[in-house]
Amino acid sequence: MDPVKLPVFGLPGLWLLWLLTLVAFGVFGRRAWQLIGLLRQGRYENRFDHPVRRVLHAVRHVLWQPRIFNERSIGLPHFLIFWGFVVYALCFNWSLVRGLFPFLPVPYPDEVNLTSFFLEVFSVLVLLSLGVAIVRRLFFAPKYLHLSLDANLILGLIGLLMCSMVFFFAFRMVHEGGAASAWLPFSSQLARAFADLSPETAGTLAQAMWWLHMIVVLFFLVYLPYSKHLHLLASPFNVFFSQAATRPVGDLGVLDAKDDLTSGASRWQELTWKQLLSGFSCAECGRCDRSCPATASGYPLQPQQIIQKIKDHMVHTALNGGNGEGAPKLIGDVITEAEIWACTTCMACMNCCAVWNEQVPLIVTLRRHLVSQGEVERTVQDMLANLQRYGNSFGKSDRMRAKWTQTSGLKIKDARKEAVEYLWFVGDYASFDPRCEDITRQTANVFARAGVDFGLLYEAERNAGNDVRRVGEEGLFEMLRDKNLQALGKAQFRKIVTTDPHTYHTLKNEYPWNGHRPEVWHYTEVLAQLLEAGRLPLQKKLSGRVTYHDPCYLGRYNGVYEAPRRVLRALGVELVEMPRCRDKSFCCGAGGGRIWMEDTEKIAERPAENRIREAAALAGVTTFVVACPKDIAMFRDAVKTAGQEGKIVVKDLAELVAEAMAEPRPEAPSPKPETNPKPESPK
Amino acid sequence: MNLYVLLKMVPDTVEELEVAADGKSLDSEFLRFKLSEPDDHALEQALILKEKMGGKVTVVAFDAPEVDDVLFTALAKGADRAVKIPLNQASLGTVASAKVLTEFFAAAGALTSDSLLLPGSQAIDDLEGELAPLLAAALKLPYIGVVCGVTGDAGKVTVLKEFAGGLRGEFEVTLPAVLGIQSAEKPPRYVPVAKVRAVMKSAQIEEAALASPEQPIQLDIERMYKPEAAGRAQMIEGSTEEVADQLVEVLAKNSVI
Questions:
Q1: Mean pLDDT split into 10-residue runs, chain B, 257 residues
Q2: CA gap A263, A251 in Å, rounded
Q3: Helix, strand, or coil here: A178?
Q4: Chain B residues inside the 8 Å CB shell of A479
Q5: With a threshold of 0.95, does the pTM exceed it?
Q6: Cβ atoms within 10 Å of A256's Cβ, excluding its own
Q7: Which residues from B are below 8 Å from A when comparing CB atoms?
Q8: Residue-range domains of chain A with CATH
Q9: Is A242 at the interface with chain B, CB within 8 A?
Q10: ipTM strictly over 0.85?
Q11: Domains of chain B
């Protein structure tokens, strides 16, 4: 039976198929060309570097989709729907080519046993998955799910496709005499239900099913680029071009940019083509919103909305004539400043995005525009001015940077004057914040007692620029970076060790070392190395149950999860993990310059308080271990505001190590939460 | 509107100030200069007036360390011209500064019927705020100090002045005039580093050749010293009666009772 050879509604089947195909592909092609045209209006950036790495990345994340499985209920169904789609798309095209060119000496895919088997198996699997999806939508819809007409229409169409295929097989079987086939186990069963049909009727019905299938597919083709299901065409490219395939996580640089990007984007045309592609790739799954600490706390930011709003704005202004008088402005009307400033750059969204969108660099691009217009909130402005003038956000003289060393009981080397193995890049908070100074002194003593040969840059050290860069002040970042590189160039050292994970990330991944990048380590990594080398003189075992908070810039940004845990276990404490640990760690709310901003909106609960409650809920856990000076500031404050004083204590890993290294240090008792100074307002 | 902002560099008190060996001046080794804060507000007020009224903003400064950065920053914020008077500000003093500035503005074409001169109301080394009134007197222009808001109109401005006790007064001043600015109506704006750098590459700082007054017009400084430590506080602890007893003892010991 060749459905194309038979007339349909009086028209020769072949003509009809040609007509439908040309119309469908014509409409699809026009729309695709329009959308590509939009991307081409974006700014240039090179995303063609390291093609082999990109291909491997794309193969893994398009074909295997490990990130889809990070949400279990929909992981397997999506995976099956995807592969069903692939098999169907291949067979559809095969079928279409065979139909359009009847002289080709090949059978239809449904006439080949093996392919018909696959078509059948997948149609059943997809129907089952659809069942899951429908039940989920009707009865167990999570709050975040958009129950849009769009999504339901697509699910309906997929269902129609699968049913038409299975019924086609069944009717054909009846038409051809009703012999069951081992290759078509399900439709063989179905055929028995229609055994009473005459062969002619069954043949007509089979033909109708074939045409129904083709028409639905062609309609799908037309509808796709107008719907959110554009993601299934755009996201494979998005994954291939993703920055993570070749560059450090959350990289804010743009390769081979032809425009000056330091002043960011105020119009969609000032975003790069890759940033614009994000909107076409987004499947509106909401993973990013669910992981976002700002969203969870009730700030106006939802990472997915940023992506979606840019896409809608672009399509509306460029294609739907929304570009006239009073057209909304990208920043201010479409996306508010409050949304842009709420991001902590914690990387949770990008870490779970199944299509590898890059929300954080996009938000920083928008911030750059605000900074270029001087539209920066007062407290941030003061910090930037301080950093510009003194090289630290505390507004203190650079000569005060190493003041903590005077009471450390150590003579710490000046790496600018004598060679050291480790240059310790202490960072602002560890150097200046009164809450952190004592921890910094204890860290120095731990290093000294472990025989680490280390030195400082003293007053030549500047803020490394992580927060400055994420606030969107690229020029100031470059200024700080250049001053640091100049100072580092004059110092003699082999490796760098940092206290602050934010500093760690920036020195390791964002400084151009001209091919001579030194090894950069976080102090927790150095402690773990010392431990393994047997150089940590631990005197006693500590006891008690502790939990460990993974700092964003150490964990998600740089994948350091094990080193601090190895040290903790060696100390003798019992490590209990929070539900959100490792790459699911919940940000303290300080990153990306947030530590300098004041909460003007009414929010439900600050991220740090939410986190402390999570830790306090763990049975028997009384110590909350951190490995970041900003965490000390944020969480010690949160313990008080969340009313958890006396229940849980925030300690730095270095404090615990110092404690286990015994030798009583009466001048530096480990801090008790009730004696902590009030958190400093960022004035 | 023809707006002039007078910028002055003052010692940055974030750095530790040390008295020099001569006991009469600040030790210059650790001294860093920064723009006097009221002057920063004067610039902001000028930029706001320019945005509302149109016109031109000229910033004028004496030579001092880091003054070029400040002038370029002013240009990046939106000033149109930057003029540097190549005389050492630190050795001039307020009275001589006013004299030199008078000459600058007396030069042909500097003052027009829509000119407004905006010095800061005071500075940490001019707490009396002498510069603005001295300048106004010498130029025979109207003057109002401690200004915290200016709105422009053709040929005149309405000025908001702060008085003690939370009182405010509104004045109408015909131009040209001198206004000592205490604070602008909005905090000074932020200008990104990249913009300042771009201005450094493209813009020029003009130099105004002016002679230093022949005789130094300075007060003689006899002695400069850090505030001397006052008496120490003593905490008295215990029950009410013990505290009372100890208090009586302390007062008696210090011959108060």
A1: 96 90 85 95 97 96 95 97 92 90 89 94 92 96 96 91 91 96 94 95 94 77 85 83 92 86
A2: 17
A3: coil
A4: 193
A5: no
A6: 10
A7: 12, 14-16, 30, 34, 77, 187, 189-197
A8: 3-237 (1.20.950), 379-675 (no CATH)
A9: no
A10: yes
A11: 2-207 (3.40.50.620)
